[in-house]
Amino acid sequence: MGFRTLALEQQASEVWKVLGAVKTEFERYGDWVEKVREQVQKAADTLDRADTRSRQMRRALKNVEALPEGEAQALERVYLAQARGIELINKAKPQESFIALKSFEALEKMANGQATKLVIPSNMQNLASFTTALKTFWEDDKK
To answer: Is the pTM of this model over 0.85?
Structure first.
C-alpha cells in the first residue's frame, strides 16, 4: 500500500505541475485575446469614423451631377497625362529658366481668363523679375 500511495502522490504532483503550466499559458492567452480585442475595437472605431466621413461627403455631393462615363474617363486620362508630364519634368531636373518660362505661361493664361485674384509669387527674390514681366505683359497688351 505504501508504494501505491507514493506513486499516486507523484502522479498527482505531476498533474498539478501540468495544470499550473496550463494555467500560466491560459493567462497569457487571455492577455493576447484582450490585445486582439483592443485592436479590433480600434479598427471598428476607425471604420465608424470613415463611415461618418463617407456620409458627410455623400451629403455634400448630393446635388452634384455626375459626369457621363465617357467624359469622366477622358478627364481622368487628361489628368493622368498631366501628372505624368509633371513627373517627367521633375525627373529631368529642369533649370530655373524653364521653371520661370512655365510660370510666365501660366500667368498669361490666368490674365486672359476671368481671374479676379492677385497672384503673389512665394519666392520673393524673383519679385523684381515678376514685376518686369508684368510690365512687359501689360505694355504688349496695350499695343
So the answer is: no
Q: Domain count for the chain, please give it.
A: 3
Burial per residue of 6-42, b for 16 or more beta-carbon CB atoms within 10 angstroms, e otherwise: eeeeeeeeeeeeeeeeeeeeeeeeeeeeeeeeeeeee
What's the farthest any 2 CA atoms get from each other in the chain? 125
pLDDT at 54 > cutoff 70: yes
Gap between the Cα atoms of 143 and 132, Å rounded: 17
- CA dist 38 and 42 (Å) reads 6
What is the chain's alpha carbon radius of gyration, rounded to the nearest angstrom?
Answer: 36
In this prediction, residues 69-87 reach a mean pLDDT of 91
Range of the domain at 14: 1-64
